[in-house]
Amino acid sequence: MTSPSQAATAGADTPGPDDAGLRSTRVAKEGELAGRSPGQLMWLRFKRDRTGVISACIVLAFFLVAALAPVISKLYGKDPYTRYGELDPTLLNDNSYPVKPNGGIDSEFWFGLEPGLGRDVFTQLIYGIRTSLSLALVVTLLSVITAIVIGVAGGYFGGRVDYFLGRFTDLMMSFPNQLFFVAFTPVVGALLVPTEDEMPTWLRACVIIYVMWLLGWMTLARLLRGQTLSLREREFIEAAKVAGTPPGRIVRKELLPNLVTPILVQSTYMLPNNVTAIAGLSFLGVGLLEPTPDWGRMFAKGAEVYQSDITYMFFPGGAMVIFILAFNLLGDSVRDAFDPKSGR
Q1: pLDDT of residue 31
Q2: Could you give the residue ranges of the DSSP H alpha helices within the chain?
Q3: In percent, how much of the chain has pLDDT > 70?
Q4: Phi, psi dihedral angles at 64 (to 5 degrees)
Q5: What gap in Å lies between CA 155 and CA 249, rounded to an integer?
Q6: pLDDT tens-digit series, residues 151-161
Q7: Of 125, 249, 265, 271, which residue has the fewest beta carbons closer than 10 angstroms?
């Protein structure tokens, strides 16, 4: 005969219909997740992160504005080069500041007019986004490719290859980046262009890309070297070597797919840093110069007129802050989405 306490214990241990339903639902979800690829799991985690999704939309909007800047300018009816303040003397006062309040913002000039020359601020801003993003994207791609080649080669082959590549990386990291940017860019221009001629814009852009790429790959290369050193001791790499797989195929098929996470995450941090560096060079006068629209040049102009027209500084400053913040949050979200231990 069963006592009441034994009956209660037996009833507690026996799964009820609700427990069975929850268990079956959990097993179904685990089976569904087990059947998905790592990329699909990453995408599911990323979609659940509202901050990441919003940041990705903002970043995508910046890229769309940069790509469609000529179309937007044509629909808007203005361009970043025409000096509207000189064409219409009623737009600027005797001190060359916009006559209308808030920097001349109205239905005709959405973001106002540039003090001094009277150019349209809205078109300068969208073309400045186009210029900065284009240069930063090229620099980032070149830096990532260089870091992959040097970091993975050093980590996988080891020995003398790793020693010489490591010492070369240390040597490049010893250069002070910002100081080298400021000093080296005019030197390259002086070597390539006669002193009586002005450096063309395309050459100045190429010099900026070259200098920033030369000093922009080392951090990612050292990170990939460390990851590769860890991966080359794993069983699947050893099995590929025993099977006689060529080193190039091992790197392409085995190592690189497992290095996607650090490459993507670091790239999302490198791009906004390069945008900031390019703007800083233009601000210091060694980057892109007049009349090329550029964020850094707009900052330099805003620093000259902020006491009389603070509105002009507001738009490039706000755009820069939003872009950098969105890209950094996107990098955090991508990192969390790739991390299986993430709680998001």
Answers
A1: 46
A2: 4-13, 17-34, 38-47, 50-67, 69-76, 84-87, 101-104, 121-157, 159-173, 177-192, 201-214, 218-231, 235-242, 247-250, 260-284, 295-305, 311-338
A3: 86
A4: -65, -40
A5: 15
A6: 999 888 888 88
A7: 249
**Look-up of token digits 């609700």:** 18
3-state secondary structure 157-185: HCHHHHHHHHHHHHHHHCCCHHHHHHHHH
**For the chain, what is the mean pLDDT?**
81
Total number of residues shown for the chain: 344
Contacts of residue 344, defined as CB under 8 A and 6 or more positions apart, other chains included, come to 45, 48, 49, 336, 337
pLDDT digits (tens, 9 = 90+) for 205-216: 888 888 889 888
Contact call for residues 296 and 287 (beta carbons, < 8 A): yes
Residues 268-289, buried b or exposed e (16+ Cβ, 10 A)? bbbbbbbbbbbbbbbbeebbbe
Give per-residue pLDDT as tens, 44-75.
887 888 888 898 899 999 999 999 999 999 99
Give Cα 313 to chain centroid, integer Å: 23
The strand pairing partners of 92, in sequence order, are 98
Would you state the structure tokens that stand for residue 180, as one six-digit string?
């080298």
pLDDT(314) > 90? no
Nearest-angstrom CA–CA distance, 275 and 256: 27
Among the ranges 10-19, 62-71, 80-89, 310-319, which has the highest mean pLDDT value?
62-71
- Could you identify the residue written with the tokens 């290369």? 221
From residue 108, how far is each of 95, 105, 122, 181 by CA, in Å? 21, 8, 11, 39
